[in-house]
Amino acid sequence: MKILALHTLAFLHVHRRALLVFYLFFTGLVLAAIAPLFSSALTALRPITGHAAISTGGLVQFVVSPGGLLWISATATLTALLVILQQAGMTWIAASGGGREYRIAIATLWALARRFKQLLTLTLLQLSGHALIAVPFLLAIVVSYQWLISPHDIYYLKLERPPEVWWFLGISGVAALGIAVCNGWLYLRWVLSVPLLLLERRGARDALKQSSRYIHGQRLPVMGAIIAGLVGLALIPIVVTWLFQAVGGEIITSLPERMGVLMPVTLGLIALYILFTLTAAFAGMAAYSMLIYSVYRQATGHHRHSTAQTLPRRASPLAWSAELLIIILAATQAWFVLQSFDHRDDVSITAHRGSAFKAPENTVSAIRQAIEDGADYVEVDIRMTADGVPVLWHDTDMRRVFGLNARISDITLEEARARDAGSWFGPAFSDERIATLEQVIETTRGQAHLYLDLKPAPETPDLTREVVHMLQRMDAVENTVIAAAEWRVLAEARQLEPSLKTSLLAQFIVGPLWEQHFDILGLRQNRVTPATVARTHRAGNELHVWTVNTPQAMSRFIDMGVDNIITDRPAVLAQLLQRRQALTDAELLVIKLRNWLR
């Protein structure tokens, strides 16, 4: 293993500049050409894939639909192909002799172009093999989900955690371990296929077979080195981010309260972070590629390509241009990042089901508490009783709140109001009863805006119509947001009342936001990134993030530029906004820098 490490470092040292030039060329080509082409292809696939923003309700349908499968396959293929092409390019450079860096990089790109068909075939074969191995385990997860989880409301399962939850987690854990072990072993067996295909001009199938034979004869330390290389690749961004979060914050807080000092230092820190990130990403990928090439040479005894011809000790000025280009790119990007920092906190507060941390969700008490806590909007879930009354109710059944294994649409309002809707949260709320939409409109009038999440069921197809008509009758249309996880609900609401604002509660975005059926895109917090925010704003939509309950996450999304934060703790968010208004420029700059680094 020691010899393997020394060979890897030697190849990395000898070819470092050629590798760097190729990395820049390849990355630039991907950003300038391949990414826009892929985006255009997604747009062209609109008739097949359907909507660009996939709603919560349409997630399963999308995944199992022909369009969804096509999108998943295309995304996986492109991602894997780019990784293989980059590794192949670095492998080609490692096998070459000395020479001018730019000539080597261009020659490498040409070699990849000539072998592109074979590399694409290799990518497709690898993906197919991994998919075939993973399918039985994934089916086990799907079947156990349908059998154990789907019959129950998700929030009942989260709170009560019946045995079905633990059975499902156990089955899923075993299946995930099976995927990790089986697919991991397959990856190791095929890890030499790229150099075999590229350097020995083998076909894709032959390269995979030969790789399996060579790897079978290797010792455990070699496998350990490859696994360690993969772990190192995953840890690089985490370590770099942690380091700059710790050091950058200390540096800025120790500086004098003068923007003439703070801004240049912050600019320098951002530039250094970008520079280190780019360098670390390049070094990690290059080192891993050199490791695979070293394993290939050791396994095959392949010594045809000599590395004796190296660059002269005193490289020409042109050889330093790659390093200079990276520094210029980092400084330019840092300037744009710094310019994007907005000292204003322009974000609205939406209380999720009222102040759900202080009172039973979707009740009058929770709504009044949300108003007291400073919420701009009160989000509530709307379903319909058997007698056609819109009421505040989230779950698909009544088990969590009423202890009944039935739907709210199975009973009348009178029957529902006869039951205790608050004791499940705490004894102090034992007198709480189910709230109607009419009560909510009167409670919030003039104090907060409504954010109505409509949840129609097959047995209540008139829910949207009844809600819109009630808003119209009670003069409550203005500033009210109609939210839903289904496109058809928003389209119906917009048709009934064009002035209503609509919000699509989506899981993720798969293409350009071409739809005009909504004003607001609501995303789960783990789906929101600065790029998503910018993309949504470019499409002319607001972006609302849900459900955010920690001050750290709230602060991060404020600096990300979201328009609305949906939270169970509106008082915490209101206090955070007040504290941020009292911060000095230096303190606010530290927070924004840390949030940007996360």
From TrEMBL:
Annotated PROSITE patterns: GP_PDE (PS51704), PIPLC_X_DOMAIN (PS50007)
Residue span(s) of domain GP-PDE: 347-577
Keyword Transmembrane helix: yes
PANTHER family per UniProt: GLYCEROPHOSPHODIESTER PHOSPHODIESTERASE, CYTOPLASMIC, GLYCEROPHOSPHORYL DIESTER PHOSPHODIESTERASE
Pfam families documented for this protein: GDPD, GPDPase_memb
Regions crossing the membrane: 20-39, 59-85, 119-146, 166-199, 220-245, 265-296, 317-338
GO molecular function: phosphoric diester hydrolase activity
Keyword terms of this UniProt record: Membrane, Transmembrane, Transmembrane helix
KW Membrane (keyword) present: yes
GO annotation, biological process: lipid metabolic process
Any coiled-coil regions, as ranges: none
Name of this protein: GP-PDE domain-containing protein
